[in-house]
Amino acid sequence: LDERTLVLIKPDAVRRGLVGEILGRFERKGLTIDAMALRGMDAELADQHYAEHVDKAFYPPLKDFMTGGPLVALVLSGDQVIEVVRGLVGATDGRRAVAGTIRGDLSLSNRENLVHASDSVDSAKREIALWFPELG
Ligand code: CMP
């Protein structure tokens, strides 16, 4: 069953020169890039994208981080892509993420964890509409 998911290659990955490394993992897995752009997340987009986190204690520093530099936004498609991408990305906390995953191999942080990926069909729909309204 083909699905779509929204992925953000976060500002820490762009700063560290890891965009190619991360994109390569998605491509080698066999996923399709439906849309991709180097973008900035402004305060308003951050509040919309992270609507479920705006009241959490970790949100202010997360917002500073996510709005602090360019990121790469992309839409990936493929068979069960939402679950597949979350497996490739690994657990939120880079210190706990299993080796072999993007975060497990490349991040040592719970905040600067390199990648965001939609966590459900509903959040993928909402996030794709937010970042790439032209995809419908
Ligand atoms: P992401 O998948 O983009 O979704 C929410 C983000 O908040 C998460 O990745 C991390 O970057 C950040 N985050 C989640 N939990 C924490 C936490 N406990 N402390 C700091 N940052 C967090």
UniProtKB/TrEMBL annotation:
Top EC category: transferase
Keywords: ATP-binding, Cytoplasm, Kinase, Magnesium, Metal-binding, Nucleotide metabolism, Nucleotide-binding, Phosphoprotein, Transferase
Record localization: Cytoplasm
Chief localization: cytoplasm
Record EC number: 2.7.4.6
Domain Nucleoside diphosphate kinase-like: residue ranges: 2-136
Active site: 116 (pros-phosphohistidine intermediate)
Subunit structure comment from the entry: Homotetramer.
HAMAP family assigned: NDP_kinase (MF_00451)
Homology family: Belongs to the NDK family.
Protein name as annotated: Nucleoside diphosphate kinase
Organism of this sequence: Micromonospora sonneratiae
Phylogenetic placement of the source organism: Bacteria, Bacillati, Actinomycetota, Actinomycetes, Micromonosporales
Gene: ndk
